[in-house]
Amino acid sequence: MMIIRVMLSIGLIGALLVAGQSVYRRLPSDGPDRPNAEATANSELTILLRDEIAASSAHAAIELYAIDFAAAQSEFFAHPHPGKTFDDFLAQRTKGLAPIRARFDEQGRALVKLTAGNWWIHATAALANGEKLEWRLPISVGGESQTAELSGENAYERTKKF
């Protein structure tokens, strides 16, 4: 009986080691041999500003982060963080990530080359009437070309100074 327990224990430990090594091999590397997002970009994302926002595209900024926004939300809500808002958590999470920045042209159009995968768009725009808009949109990039529209309807936050 003792021999069977020892054999099963060794088998269990071996199976755990093999499973751990399998998961570890699939993780992305953080080393210098890791290609950057722009060098391996194979998808073209066009971001459009709509309505009155396009007229003030000179006062707009856009950043794209290679982060799975839905997974970050799930992680935040699965593990409580007393005294920390989701915005704080997201800022901490994206701090080490280098964003890809884009500029809008006169027609309110920005063109960015990205790798396929989950991205998070963070954009701001100041309108002529003093109003400021902010967008926080998760997007799944795949294929050769895609279009994302930023409008007043899908803005995350709309503020105005009085």
Which key terms come to mind for this protein?
three-stranded mixed sheet, 162 residues, Immunoglobulin-like, single chain, alpha+beta
Summarize the structure in words.
The protein has 162 residues and is α+β, with helices and mostly antiparallel strands. It has a single domain (43-160), classed as Immunoglobulin-like. Helix content is 27%, strand content 33%. It has three helices and eight strands, in the order H-E-E-H-H-E-E-E-E-E-E. It has helices at 2-26, 69-78, 86-94, and strands spanning 43-49, 60-65, 100-102, 109-114, 117-126, 131-141, 145-150, 157-160. A five-stranded antiparallel sheet has the order 3-2-5-6-8, with no helix packed on it. A three-stranded mixed sheet has the order 4-1-7, with no helix packed on it. The longest helix has 25 residues, at 2-26. It is elongated. It starts with a helix and ends with a strand. Residues 30-38 have low confidence and may be disordered.
